[in-house]
Amino acid sequence: MSQEMNVNVTPGAGSNPFEKIGRDQNGGERIVRKSLTAWQNIRRNLYENKLSMVGLYFIIAIALMAIFAPWVTGLITGYNYFANELANANQPPSWAHWFGTDDLGRDMWVRTWKGAQISLFVGIAAALIDLVIGIVYGGIMGYFGGKVDETMNRIAEILYAIPYLLVVILLMVVMPQSLTTIIVAMSITGWINMAWIVRGEIMRLKNQEYALASKALGAGSMRIIFRHLIPNAMGPILVTLTLTIPGAMFTEAFLSFLGMGVKSPVASWGTMIDNGRQAMTTYPWRIMFPALFLAVSMFALNVFGDGLRDAFDPKMKK
Amino acid sequence: MSDNFVEVQGLRKFFNVGNNRILKAVNDISFSIKQGETLGLVGESGCGKSTAGRTIIRLYEPTAGSVTVDGVEVTKLSKSKMKAQRRNMQMIFQDPFASLNPRMTILDIIGEALDIHGLAGSRAERKRRVEELLELVGLNAEHASRFPHEFSGGQRQRIGITRALAVEPKFIICDEPISALDVSIQAQVINLLMDLQKKMDLTYLFVAHDLSMVKYMSDRVAVMYLGKIVEIAKSEDLYANPQHPYTTALLSAIPVPDIEDEGRKERIVLQGDLPSPINPPSGCPFRTRCPAATERCAQEAPELRETRPGHLAACHYA
Ligand SMILES: Nc1ncnc2c1ncn2[C@@H]1O[C@H](COP(=O)(O)OP(=O)(O)OP(=O)(O)O)[C@@H](O)[C@H]1O
Ligand SMILES: [Mg+2]
């Protein structure tokens, strides 16, 4: 407390040393300035980051193409991703087949966007599963701390230490070779990173006075974790989520490349690359297009994730 | 039964700070507060005032001791009984910028109190009640839809007060509610608290780190040093006849308005820093900084005893 205040206090004074100030004198309580919410601020920071916005536009464009291109192309030309047309095999890019055709004469343009569907789906699904498990597990670890944290953290560490490929291969033995298996395999260890991020954030936030105030009101642990703490940890969570997607997409491609991916005729960028690799020198377009789009989307997602991280970082604020 | 509304007996809160070191933040404090009374709790930064307050309303589990509020022994209550008891006792926090969740609107921050205890039947009733409460503390009803960052420190502190009042408590712990505010705003908040006390017959534990504001607010004052209460007495008596050398030193730090008085009173500057609550001094905790310390003070811990009628002090030489 400052000195000026103290001076006002006369020892043993009977009179009120403080002038009572009523409510809303001259509209003094009214809020004039319309200040930005935290989210508006983040959005503005993001807008100013050109590279990351380019990344975002790329992702949106690729996602839109993945959703609509196979369907629209099918309507116009009758091409689909599965019907073989051996007479047309290994055609280079042309007006009829923009991206050429593969060894079974299937249109690469349609297959590339079909592949985008699978790749993006795997990336997003794996990231969302990581998100849910990571938030719950990490939230509980971070909030309760102590023995609970120690035990749960030990379990996470053990899982994390198991070689990832081993888990996948073992899983492939007991489960059918399918998209579900790939996603499950990725999720077994994928959530741990998210859980650690959430745990750190919750530990940082749990002794904030707003959390204590909620506890004082009688709120239960779950209410405090999910209503108060998680929303305030959304920045790092979103960044981690965004950066998980390209990782999962790459893992899917990698597994496909090893022959553990989705089964033909369904295409993912990974299986297409694997398939194209066999004729890389003679029919380069068969590997070029899926590889190019995989690289571009991973790059775009990473750039966007980094931009998001910067936008959330208060040190970047002007 | 006594007519004490709040009764704290032998309360301790120790923190385990790793490496088997114990931090004795609150070490055996006892006091009582009558209904409608304000007990001031003063002491320098780090002496355990916030921890004491938080342990009393069981934001922290006490290491030992008992707390009785309105005839209910709080420390032993089950989860569900504790939730009901929380309607009786609330807390106003030190930092108005940390005590409101930045992601929630004022309506939801205050409404949460109503939600937890089922105090509002419908959304409309909830909104109406929140607006009513806002007006009670001198804010506008239209502020309900705003976010905390749109308010000034004083306004935020009023919102914190509103939240506490929403469950209609009888006992409120005010943890340095004004120390983070501009001097010009402090008096407004103090007056608001005193107004509310009169209107609603509230009992306060008013925490502060210097004696001047406490004197204005409190009927009785307890002085805390290194987790212990070293003196407790009626306000006027404590100011007129401080018994403990630490209280004398604190009082001498209050600037006196009139010059004659200033000459009479000499300012006692305490030597050294507050000792660590991990390794408190033997005997009397204050002896390392006490101008009158003797051999006996190092050997024997002084008990809190009545040195004048209704005036307790923990000093061998009081
Ligand atoms: N959660 C905790 N874990 C470990 N130590 C703690 C914890 N909370 C408080 N302490 C320690 O307990 C002691 C008392 O802290 P407390 O916050 O109660 O002091 P205070 O009197 O409120 O100080 P201030 O005026 O700065 O608010 C300090 O040494 C502090 O470091
Ligand atoms: Mg404090």
From TrEMBL, chain B:
Pfam families: ABC_tran (PF00005), oligo_HPY (PF08352). Transmembrane segments: none annotated. The keyword Transport applies. Keywords: ATP-binding, Nucleotide-binding, Transport. PROSITE patterns: ABC_TRANSPORTER_2. Signal peptide: none annotated. It comes from the Bacteria. Residues 6-251 form the ABC transporter domain. One of its GO terms (molecular function) is ATP binding. One of its GO terms (biological process) is peptide transport. Belongs to the ABC transporter superfamily. This is ATP-binding cassette domain-containing protein. It comes from Cohnella lubricantis. The lineage of its organism: Bacteria, Bacillati, Bacillota, Bacilli, Bacillales.
